[in-house]
């Protein structure tokens, strides 16, 4: 008896679906791309429960005949290619003929479609890959595809889906990419009956403004360079606008969103000595070139490409970006406030309290990729970081048995000679103290992070959270995914000390904040906490309370560049040794290092 058998079609379809349909975002991408390929100029996306219960895409494209509607759900049935040579010049999004059949295998799929010149359309319902219903009827011109109860027949896959806010974030990112690549198409996006995007037909500049906000466009530089080999267009951020988010870089090749380490490295290296370490420039770039000179079949999701001439492409992109940067005045303007207490960079809310403004503007290329570096020999230098920090970061009363034992040990080691200060601040980063056995060094940022982390955990455990009321409420505009995350975490944020009021159109009003938050930094801090929390949620299996406490502590802690007074240093050390684990921060980084006196003697040959 043969041991090897052909799998039943229903099982093989489920296996194939595992590659094509990884999460609700995968379905959204396939359906939106099919709608674009149909020639539609108006597309509507409707999702419920972050796509877990419903994903629906309606378009006014060409529609399908009855025969095509039946064929479109079969594996390897496509209208995009007919022979092997077509793979060399693919200009459409979908072409493999696997998407709808894979989606149908793990969901309840409904298709309503009608040709523009016909009065009767077609309705098909498929349940888990099995055709259940076929009808004729009158429908809107174009096509409507509904995907219900995704992964209902593969519970293991469904259990691996993340929270609604995380899945929604992925969907929104894909929607943004598709909407950016087709500003000539009108898009509407509904989430749980709420309209979160309504994008009219426009050009790229206005589409960027509609999606990311007008303030981003004001801080960008247009890029346009047509050549015989490749045409490059789009927008790049002025160096002063670079930020911490690696997700603000978008590349489109022949109008298809892709990832390319080569292009990314070329852009980042163009900003050498213009941005700070850890910052990433915002950019949206479109590269158009001969389809035969690139290969988009190197990734199952068609997200990666290979170039015939990687070094040539790299050189051209880098030269074009540098030319665009050089054509604009990049020296930031200085804006004086009425109080006369200082100055800040115009248009840069994150740059308050900067010292040595022009020198701190210099940085390094921060894109780290050893393989690319070996090819293109990027420069690696260090820079000094200057980031705004809290005014009065300390208010934590040290107490408890752990504090007393560790504090006693510290006091026994610290030597005070006459009136000399016990603590010294090194490079506005490290607190140095002479102890009997040698030298103690404390990283001020991670020390404060440990303190705030444990204070946050205490806040969650209290029945009456303490909040510092704002004299004037602050309103913050969030993207739809972050707005949904605030709704999900509202109770936890309240326990932490944030008093928030949800507003229409993805806005949140901040009425109160935890007592450790610097006045004027409330809106940026909330955004940073949401961003950090999402990163922890993606890479960590810890619970909501711990993730949120880590996120708050990381973003609210003092940063390198803040000049601590002697009193603040002493208080910081007192509070640090009152915590349960004063030696490591919540992420596991060391806080305290001790260097023995013997080591100094050895170094100096004593």
Question: How do you describe this structure in short?
Answer:
This protein is of the alpha+beta class and about 600 residues long.
List the helices and strands and how they pair.
Blueprint: H1 9-20, H2 24-37, E1 42-48, E2 54-59, H3 66-71, H4 99-105, E3 108-114, E4 121-127, E5 130-137, E6 142-148, H5 155-159, H6 164-181, E7 186-191, E8 194-199, H7 204-212, H8 214-218, E9 220-226, E10 230-237, E11 249-253, E12 256-258, H9 261-270, E13 283-289, E14 294-295, E15 306-307, H10 310-326, E16 334-336, E17 343-345, H11 357-360, H12 370-376, H13 401-413, E18 423-426, E19 430-435, E20 438-443, H14 444-461, E21 468-477, H15 480-496, E22 499-503, E23 507-513, H16 522-539, H17 544-556, H18 566-576, E24 592-596, H19 597-603
Parallel strand pairs: 1-7, 11-13
Antiparallel strand pairs: 1-2, 2-6, 3-4, 3-6, 4-5, 7-8, 9-10, 10-13, 11-12, 14-15, 16-17, 18-19, 19-20, 20-24, 21-23, 22-23
